[in-house]
Amino acid sequence: MKKIIPFAVILLSLVSCAQSTPPKQFSEATKQEKVTDLQGQELSFGDLLKRHRGKITVIEIWASWCGDCVKAMPKVKEMQAAHPDVDYVFISMDKGLDKWKAGIEKHQLTGDQYWVNDEKGMKGSFGKSIDLDWIPRYIVLDAEGNIVTYRAIETDFEQLNATLKTLK
C-alpha cells in the first residue's frame, strides 16, 4: 500500500499537467460558435478571429454584472494605453443585449465588442468550448492567430503586459 500511494500521486500529477496544457489553436467547434456584433449581426468566432489575423490580439471575456471584470477595467485601459498597436476584443457573457450595450457605454470600453447570446451564459456552448470557468478571462493571440496565453484572469496583468512586450 505504501508503494501505491506515491505512484498514484505521480500518475495524478502527470495527468493533471497533461490536461492543463493550453491549446495552440481554437478547435473547429469553437470557431463555429456564434457571437453578435454591435450592429446585431451574428458571425462565427472563427470569422471574428479572421478579422484580427496579422495583429497581436487580446481577447477579454467579461460581463457587466461581474464585479471582478469591473474592478479590472482600469488595468485593461492601462494595458491598452501601453500597447496601442494591439487589437482588443471584448466578448460579453451578459444575459441580455441591453445590459451588454449599457456596460460598454458605462465603462467606456474601446475595442471590438461582441456578445454571446446564450441563455446559459458562461455554462453555454461557447463557454464550454473555451473551458470558461472564470471571468474576466484574457486570451492573447500572436499575429498568426496562435494562442500564446489561454487562461489569464484579473490578477495576471503583469504577465499579460510582459507577454505583449515579447510579441512585438
Describe this structure in words.
- It comes from Flavobacterium fontis.
- One of its GO terms (biological process) is cytochrome complex assembly.
- The protein has one domain (25-167): Glutaredoxin.
- The chain has a 7-stranded mixed β-sheet with strand order 2-1-5-4-3-6-7.
- It is 42% helix and 20% strand.
- Mean pLDDT is 89; it is low at 5-19.
- The radius of gyration is 17 Å and the shape is globular.
- The protein has 7 helices and 7 strands; from the N terminus they run ααββαβαβαβαββα.
- The protein has helices at 4-19, 28-32, 45-51, 67-82, 97-107, 125-129, 157-167; strands spanning 34-37, 42-44, 57-62, 87-92, 112-115, 137-141, 147-152.
- The protein is of the alpha/beta class and 168 residues long.
Task: Write a concise keyword list for the protein shown above.
single chain; 168 residues; alpha/beta; seven-stranded mixed beta sheet; 7 helices; signal; disulfide bond; Thioredoxin-like; Thioredoxin-like_fold
Task: Explain briefly what this protein structure is.
Keywords: Cytochrome c-type biogenesis, Disulfide bond, Redox-active center, Signal. The protein contains seven helices and seven strands; from the N terminus they run ααββαβαβαβαββα.
> Uncertain regions: pLDDT < 50 for 5+ in a row?
5-19
* CATH homology superfamily: Glutaredoxin
Number of domains: 1
Note the run of SSEs as H and E. Answer: HHEEHEHEHEHEEH
**Overall shape:** globular
Tell me which CATH architecture applies here.
3-Layer(aba) Sandwich
Radius of gyration: 17 Å
Largest sheet: 7 strands, mixed
The total strand number stands at 7
User: What is the C-level CATH assignment?
Assistant: Alpha Beta
At the fold tier of CATH, the topology name is Glutaredoxin
Strand order of the largest sheet: 2-1-5-4-3-6-7
Q: What's the end-to-end separation, in Å?
A: 53 Å
Q: Which structural category fits the helices and strands? A: alpha/beta
Domain Thioredoxin: 24-162
InterPro entries: Thioredoxin-like_fold (IPR012336), Thioredoxin-like_sf (IPR036249), Thioredoxin_domain (IPR013766), Thioredoxin_ResA/DsbE_sf (IPR050553)
Subcellular location: Cell envelope
Signal peptide: 1-18
